[in-house]
Amino acid sequence: MPGVRSFPDRAAMGAAAAADIAEELRSRLSAQGAVRVIFAAAPSQSDMLDRLVAAPGVDWTRVTAFHMDEYIGLAADDPARFANWLDRAIFTRLPFAEVHRIDPEADPATYAKLLAEAPIDVVCLGIGQNGHLAFNDPPVADLDDPEDVKIVELDRTCRQQQVDDGAFPTFADVPTHAVTLTIPRLLNATRLFCVVPGAAKRQAVEQALHAPISAADPATALRTHPDVTLYLDAEADPRG
């Protein structure tokens, strides 16, 4: 079962998650030459990322960054592209050793090869309103997926969430397909930090913690990982 930490608001949640992630990075960097981290791109991560950028004592020049999903069909300079969102949120704000951005026009196997070059130490992720992890929506999620990176069709709930989050003006503007890291690829990391604020996520959190583990609710797969912590604000915490 994931460890669960709950906070009165998003700011406190983000600060605590960032502090824990920074401590994990400092610890790993003291014991190994480099660290590899996968980041989620979503407004739910903004508070944590802002605090992580400001965290002291992390040698970012020894950290390689990846991200976990990307829309297909948006212009390279579209601000809604996840690589561009993460550039604004963290990638261009820190001196990373390398940043590997998903090219949605490339063969997904190319990105899979980059991920497989060495172990992934940390994943910073969230949970979608439909329980998705990255863009592994219930209709396409596979908890035993043989692939590491693949092209998927986004379900309606997922696409509507992008509108609700303010990333797109209308449902029709949201791309129908995306590239995503698969659930086994994400869970292959050593440590997972899952940041989930907001009342709209409360049911998804409840399901992730208590529903049967299955592809019908992809976030339930977090319960199969030995080292994952869930960070909630009061609105997202179904226990409060």
Structure characterization notes:
Keywords: Carbohydrate metabolism. It comes from Pseudonocardia zijingensis. Helix 7 links the parallel strand 9 (191-196) and strand 10 (228-233). The protein has seven helices and ten strands. The chain has a single domain (3-230), classed as Rossmann fold. It starts with a strand and ends in a 7-residue tail after the last strand. By secondary structure, the protein is an alpha/beta fold. Helix 1 crosses helix 2. The radius of gyration is 16 Å and the shape is globular. The mean pLDDT is 96. 44% of the residues are buried. The strands form two sheets. A seven-stranded parallel β-sheet has the order 1-10-9-6-2-3-5, sandwiched between helices. The protein has a three-stranded antiparallel β-sheet with strand order 4-8-7.
Topology (elements, then pairings):
Elements: E1 3-7, H1 10-31, E2 35-39, H2 46-53, E3 63-67, E4 69-71, H3 82-91, E5 98-100, H4 108-115, E6 122-125, E7 149-153, H5 156-164, E8 177-181, H6 183-187, E9 191-196, H7 202-210, E10 228-233
Parallel strand pairs: 1-10, 2-3, 2-6, 3-5, 6-9, 9-10
Antiparallel strand pairs: 4-8, 7-8
Helix pairs in contact: 1-2
Sum this structure up briefly.
With 240 residues, this protein is an alpha/beta fold. It has one domain (3-230): 3-Layer(aba) Sandwich (Rossmann fold). Helix content is 30%, strand content 20%.
Which key features would you list for this structure?
single chain, 240 residues, alpha/beta, Rossmann fold, 7 helices, Glucosamine-6-phosphate deaminase
